[in-house]
Amino acid sequence: MKLIAWLLLLTLYLGLVKASVHVISTNETYAGRTAAFGPRLLENGKFGYLIEPQDPFACNVVEPVYDNWIALVRRGQCSFITKVRNMQKSGAIAVVVGDPDHSSWVTMYAPGDTTDVLIPSMFLTRREYRSLIRLTKLVDGPLMVLMQPEDFITWPLFDVLIIVIISPCIMMSFIYLSWKIRQRQKHKQDLAPVDVVMKLTMKIFSREKIRENEAEECAICLEDYADGDELRVLPCKHDFHVSCVDAWLTTQKKFCPICKRDITCISTSEVTPLLDA
Ligand SMILES: [Zn+2]
Ligand SMILES: [Zn+2]
Fold first, then answer.
1. Could you tell me the residue ranges of all domains in the chain?
2. What is the pLDDT, as a whole number, of residue 106?
3. What class, spelled out in words, does domain 2-158 have in CATH?
4. Residue 10: what pLDDT?
5. How far apart are the CA of 250 and the centre of ligand 2, in A?
6. Which residues surround ligand 2, an ion (CB under 5 A)?
């Protein structure tokens, strides 16, 4: 249960920090990860021109070319926070930092006070960064993009929810059901068939005809036999009220409640002659 909670938290975290760059002209979306510092991307995102600054590493402040521009900068040479601060000073409304060499995900982090950072930023791995750079060089003029937070409800939270919670539930239900069915089958094997029970000997109790060693009470309901009671005599010669023992044999166990012998297996010849009626 603890593990599930952690996985959920992790998913929620991963989902919250995901972001993407959507290129308007090609309708393509590049997934990234938002920085741990600076403001969060709002639902309607940041709309602007994606431009690689004169200093591609953004380790220096540059002259702004457009009003609504989003800086597409390279990882390396100076810290993430330096790049974002420089681009903020250069008039950029957001920053996209791409890793030109590696394909591993990085959450851009900065120590100390970062409350001066007023623009959102995100990180792209090599594949996304290189595709975007290629695109900026292919098209005439600046590339219009929408930087937006990823819908964390649909992905990956929902998928992981299904995998982490719903799938095990379905599996547990299946296991439980098959266990139940097996239990029921096993229980059925423990019962005596009705037709076998019906063929067992019956007698009418009479106090006058009672012999030594013969039972005078039903071991199931613990009531004394009364004259005229219908008794069922099992192959082991133990007798009980018909209604008591028939219910016992067909719904509880196929064994004699006293001597535990299986009434479907034993024949009368196995029975001790002492108890023979
Ligand atoms: Zn009884
Ligand atoms: Zn018995």
1. 2-158, 194-275
2. 83
3. alpha beta
4. 56
5. 16
6. 236, 238, 256, 258-259
Tell me the mean pLDDT in the region 130-151. Answer: 83
198 CA to centre of ligand 1 in angstroms: 17
The rounded Å distance from CA 214 to ligand 2 centre is 12
Amino acid at 276: D
Q: What is the mean pLDDT of the chain?
A: 84
Question: Which has the closest alpha carbon to 199: 154, 166, 246?
Answer: 246
- How many A from CA of 201 to the centre of ligand 1? 16
Comparing 255 with 268, the larger pLDDT belongs to 255
Helix (H) or strand (E) holding 97: strand 94-98
Per-residue pLDDT, averaged over 1-12, amounts to 56
201, 242 Cβ separation under 8 angstroms: no
Q: Smallest Cα–Cα separation from 91: which of 62, 115, 111, 51?
A: 62
Section 85-105 average pLDDT: 90
CATH code matching the domain that covers 194-275, chosen among 3.30.40.10, 2.60.40.2470, 1.20.1250.20, 3.40.50.80: 3.30.40.10
- Strand bridging mode 28-34 / 121-124: antiparallel
- pLDDT tens digits along 188-198: 888 999 999 99
Is the pLDDT confidence value at 229 over 80? yes
Distances (CA, A) of 37 to 110, 130, 238: 7, 24, 85
CA of 123 to the centre of ligand 2 (A): 81
- pLDDT for 17 equals 62
What's the 249 CA to ligand 1 centre distance in angstroms? Answer: 13
